[in-house]
Here is the input.
Amino acid sequence: MKRLAIIIFLLCISAINTVLAKENITGRWAEKISERVVADIYTNQNTDEYQIFITWREDNLAQKNIYRFNCKSDNDGTLKYTKGIHIYRFYNSSGKFEDKVDYTDGSGEFKISNNEIIWFDNKDNSETVFIPANNDLKKDTTIKNKLFSITLPEELKNLYEVKKEKEKISIYHKDSKFAGFGGFAFGIKAYKNPADHAVLPGSRKLGELTDKKGNLYDIVLKHPTDVQYDYVKNENPPESFKLLYDLGDKVNIKGINGATYFKNQGMRGEDLYKSILEKHKTALVEKWDSAKLENENMSYMYNIIPKDKVGFTYYDINADGIDELVIGEIAQENRKSVIYDIYTMVDRKPQHVISGGSRNRYYVCDNSFVCREYSSGAAESGVDVYNLVENSTELYPQVSFKYDGYENPKNPYFISYSDEKWENYPEKEFWERKKVFEKYARLDYIRLNSIKTNDKLKDGYNAQKDYFDYSVVLAEFPKNYYYTTVKIGKSKERILIITDKINENNNSNYGLFYYFAKNGFVYPLGLIESKTPLSKSKNYLYYNDEYKDIKFYMSDKKLGIIKSKANIDEQRNNIEFTAIKSADKFKGDFGSPAGEDIKKVTMDGFYFEYHKGQYKREYIKNLMKECINEGVKTQVQMYCCMVKKLHP
Here is the structure.
């Protein structure tokens, strides 16, 4: 809305035969979006004239807009005005209010429709909607759209204005917006396709949300990339604007209407690149030669450097909120941290970016760029600076520096800002420009051969896959993980919870949740983290966020959240976990017993998983027959056999 400052209207002289019903419009109204601007409407029963005063509920504002109109009503329930007056009221240098007339020739109308008053202003070509107001200013700082809600600190409620869309909530700095400088502080938006937000500057992923239909969304924070405050009056952003800007990183987000939100999901390297690390660990153990390493899109350097010097770490190179995996040589003393392989996430799947070598080394420079140092002999060497494009394996060139004695022996210093054009620079200026990109990041590598691996380990907590048996889920996790099953309420349906860390009482503060449905399928729900150990009562699951205990219940294969605060006195117990020992131990423990109707269960399970245009049902049938001919007798064996055939 263009105006949310003190506004005063004078609407009068309404015809006796108007279709407006006085009892329908008299009283207090509020601007529809924030309800912080109110309209008090009065009428004179004898003269049938209306007076409407529209103003802020707060009295201590430093600047105000005042609008005054004389209105006449026509027969269709519309109040029209001409010669409208706009006055800008503000504190002057003496600390007193001063009025400045903006215009006296405004025109427009107010229309009553569906219990709303709609103001059309011709002068500013704007529209504002008012609704019946509550008696008091809203104190609820939870803002909702169709998918999620955000909670803002109550003490900041007078600083911002809200714009809500189906999949987005935007927060504006009120004073900056009214002053005509945009005022956008931050926005939170849900995206189904990661590529849609990857191209947006100033955006960063916060987590993932799954709606009640099972659709997966990235939840993304967007900050402004240009000045959104009154830079004419303020060289630096006002403190109130900075408070809102910084709030974007701290805002509390919840899934609603059957949706579930998981903070940091799909972002942490330890959840995303397990199979990649498994592959690199295997290369070290099996001592792959250089040819095989390169055929597998891996650097040949792992065949040259000592095995205990190969390390890895996670680093968000492009600052999109999602970790990259970098693998390289553990630096000695003050040497730079060289990178030989980089992996990133593209459409929620790990992908290889680049491999380096002895004369072609990569580094993270200036905390957000990839630098390549190369050498082509004694007389030629250089540094290329790249930006890693979000949701892509593309390294986009930023600038290149080259020492080329072959090209120009007398002045071999060149700089390029494109792939094609090199420019000669004086030596002093060359080194001054290059110095900007010489701040290389020191990476805290972990020795690759120190990690424990398992050939059934999979990437990511949110593998978008449904299973037909608990045993198949458990088979995907290594033996040092823990699990438990719980029931909620009167339902016989169960929840499977898996974690990799427990305390001395066999309890855990977080777990990967799966739902076991009546039809035998198992559906991933996501990762839940708690400040205290996960617990349950007879009817609910509990976890503790930063503010309070939260109740969970089951609804349509999703975990629903009870809005009211959980009663901490309600009888409940911490959930206990058991170590996963062997997938074979669990055959038949859950769902259908091993070997019972294996053909039906397995076929339906695989068709459910792969039917989306990738594999035909007939093709899966043939694969299943091949597996049975090879001696498959259990569901787990069938599952593993078909996976290998589908993804050799």
In short: Residues 364 and 472 are 40 Å apart (CA to CA).
